[in-house]
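>> Question from a student workshop board

For tomorrow's exercise we were told to take the sequence and the ligand below, predict the bound structure, and bring the output to class. My setup keeps failing. Could a helper post the expected result so I can at least see what it should look like? The ligand is adenosine monophosphate.
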Amino acid sequence: MDILVIGGGGREHAIIRKLKESPKAGVIYCAPGNGGISKDAVCVPISAMDIPAVVSFAKEKKVGLVFVAPDDPLAAGMVDALEAEGIPAFGPRANAAQIEASKVFSKDLMKRYGIPTAQYEVFADPAEAVAWIEKNNRFPIVVKADGLALGKGVLICPDLQAAKDAVKEIMEDKVFGASGNRVVVEEFLTGPEVSVLAFTDGHCVKPMVSSKDHKRALDGDQGLNTGGMGTISPNPYYTDEIAETCMKTIFLPTIEAMKKEGRPFKGCLYFGLMLTPDGPKVIEYNSRFGDPETQVVLPRLKTDFVDVLMAVVEERLEEQPIEWSDEACACVVMASSGYPGHYEKGLPISGLDENGQVEGATVYHAGTALKDGVFVTNGGRVLGVTALGDTLDQALQRAYDAVGRIHWKDVHFRHDIGAVK
Ligand code: AMP
Ligand code: GLY
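>> Workshop helper replied:
Here is what the output should look like for this input. Compare the format with yours to find the bug.
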């Protein structure tokens, strides 16, 4: 079966590498892909947001499956458009992708169905938001833009002035555009964070192995929030007992809630959880695989990936066994200096080969281009250097060993991925 993957980052590279292990996968296309991905898939110059072009390409090539990885084409209805043409697609329809695309929607859903999450208020008027924050007078307080904001729409405000600035930035200066027409003002929660990705066909939910993302740009969780600077799997805080609680209080109720709302969720649902002193709570939902969570979760999947994806698409996940390896996995993101702010592109990368020259290591390309046969930097996050190991320490050691062999001018990475506070 020929397969088309939509997207062009490290997550998509990890998805493609996993698909290639399946004897059922034929030609793998990627739109638009990137320099590194072009070594593993046929990259086609179609934007991940160009729904008509994706649909006609999929028809022309008669692909058996389209895997829509990023959030925006999902929210824009790419899966709906493919299904309308009879093309099997992995990912939620637009009405279910709302669980990520609107924080107001997801918070209201959780409230209606008693799913544990932070207390919150919604505002469409900046003055009302500020008046409420002032009256509430509890800090830190969290201000979130309603819509998609490239992972940057969440501001944690230590005091009233910061909260006023956040409301102004989001609602008046519109730094995230229409995503800031409404804000969610939310109670500040504490505790370790866990990412759990789950396969679901709208009826049954099968969580994958857990992971932990390191979102801040600098060591010691300092600096700005990024898309993710590194991940480990499993998450050391996520015990079997906690997993059981999450299944009962969060995973199943969410799947049921979406079904009852007439928005059955099919695809990968990502639960961003916080293990608070009052038990696990939902920080956010994403309607897709996480990046760079995918890079540490998929290498541990033992079952044929194509089988699992088709079981989701054809709504027979219940009968599809899914097996995971007991190994640990670590991913260290090598980024451009300046990311998540401004950064230079086009810097030549040296010391790169497919396997990172270290046993158990793999290099997933997030933002590279090929220029005259040489890989150059072409994004904020450039590489996800990933390794499996018998233990987390071994996986981390291998990943950092591989990182040490790769260079470009002013390369930036965190030195403390996997350090558990
Ligand atoms: P999000 O984009 O929703 O994942 O939020 C980004 C990060 O902000 C999360 O990973 C948390 O670290 C933090 N965050 C979001 N909401 C809260 C909250 N209610 N309390 C504490 N931290 C939060
Ligand atoms: N790594 C967080 C995300 O994919 O949203």
